[in-house]
Amino acid sequence: MIYNRYRSFPGRKKLPGGFTPDRVLTVPIIRQERVVAILVTGYKPLDYTESDVQFASYFADIAWTIAEFKQSEEKIRYISFHDILTGLYNRAFIEEEMHRLDTDRQLPISIIVADLNGLKLVNDTYGHSVGDQMLRIVADILKKSCRKDDIIARWGGDEFLVLLPRTSGDKVQTIFKRIRKKCRDAYIGDVPVSLALGCAVKDHPAISLSDTIKKAEDYMYKRKLADSKSTKSAVLNALLKTLGAKSYETEEHSCRMQMMALEFGEKLGLPDSELDRLSLLITLHDIGKISISEEILTRAGPLTEDEWKIIKKHPETGFRIARSTGEFAHIAEDILSHHERWDGRGYPRGLKGEQIPFLARITSIVDAFEVMTRGRPYKDKLSVKEAIEELSRCSGTQFDPELARLFIENVV
Question: DSSP of 218-251, one letter per residue?
């Protein structure tokens, strides 16, 4: 305990009773061997006694304990009714509010539901930290678009719900327009933030709020189906743009590969459905590299063993990205397999021979030939003749021998 006597007390004033304090008692409040606060009192004109010190210490400890308890209580209450990631209310809170506000005098009661498009694709591509950032952006958009008294909650993983008491359909449409406008300007890097929105109005006491929510969700899912293809296409284009900016997987590289692959596929007599799959596979075969740093992807010198392990993960990452998107799921297995080798020494699964999907075997040949004839910082450019010799040399080990022969004879 610390107490001091001061003859000159800065800024001292006369207190009730007509005396001016020139003695102060300071008592440290200690938690876990650390001073967290100091109680200072200066309202006694006489010397402080040991009893005064003990009483002040006891009072300070009790006061701080109560403050800690109150703070913990408020924190628990906050966590109970808020979503920690976004700071919005959570489902438990808004369900309680709906029960409280479901009265005739609150009519009309409007509901807005919003679903974040492409969250799983973003999580699988860029990682959950970027997905979390996107969720926080959506929360900010909703807060800025809605009114002060509107109740905004994170309803589920990628779903949000807004409760708007005493709000007609016309007013909801105004809020709708604000949300859409803010979404158009919202990006994380090159990835657009896209929301599917739905709304419904309870304008009669006989209508239940649960039915109103279902009606809003039905409207939202219809919009989501209509927007799904364009949204995923926008996200995909953003991913490819990002990959092109940080590596050598440029649009020109993809176009050259597509021309060779489709010419080869036609020579092989593939039906149109398989040619479409092959074209999409060529576009997306290296999409898994999106998660690899630019420093590794553009390294001119040799990679370390650990860096090679990172590189060899990209087929699995690409597989997860394709699987997370319905339109691309049918080529996920081919993406996973495009670095397998005919002799079984490829990656990631060590598939051998005809265990390797057919389109993945085609992609492996086309990709290798394009890289050999165009060169990379880590690999000198070869002439067409030298590239053909390399394909022939690796036929039966790295490449399907029959496909390699047909490619040389019909495409090169």
Answer: HHHHHHHHHHHHHHHHHHHHHHHHHHHHHSS--H
Please report how many Cα atoms fall inside a 13 Å half-sphere around the Cα of residue 189, on the Cβ side.
Answer: 19
Instruction: With beta carbons less than 8 A apart as the criterion, state whether 239 and 383 touch.
Output: no
Give the chain's domains with CATH numbers. 2-81 (no CATH), 91-230 (3.30.70.270), 247-410 (1.10.3210.10)
**Could you write out the three-class secondary structure of 353-372?**
HHHCCHHHHHHHHHHHHHHH
Q: Write the CB contacts of 50 (distance below 8 Å, at least 6 apart in sequence).
A: none
Q: Are 285 and 364 in contact (CB under 8 A)?
A: no
Query: Would strands 2-5 and 34-41 be described as parallel, antiparallel, or unpaired?
Result: unpaired
* Structure tokens given for 383: 């002439």
C-alpha 266 chain-centroid distance:
40
Q: Would you tell me the crossing angle of helices 358-374 and 251-267 to the nearest 10 degrees?
A: 130
DSSP 8-state secondary structure symbol assigned to residue 327:
G
Residue pair 30/57 in contact by the 8 Å Cβ criterion: no
User: Which of 79, 89, 240, 221 lies closest to 154, judged by CA?
Assistant: 89
Distance between CA 86 and CA 140 in Å, rounded? 8
Q: Give residue 188's identity as a one-letter amino acid code.
A: I
| Catalytic center residues | 289
pTM across the whole model? 0.67
Burial class (CB in 10 A: 0-12, 13-18, 19+), 212: buried
Cα angle vertex 159, ends 98, 154, to 5°? 55
* Chain centroid offset of residue 219 CA: 25
Convert the pLDDT of each residue in 209-267 to its tens digit.
999 999 999 999 888 776 666 666 676 777 777 777 766 665 677 788 999 999 999 99
pLDDT tens column, 40-57: 776 655 677 788 888 888
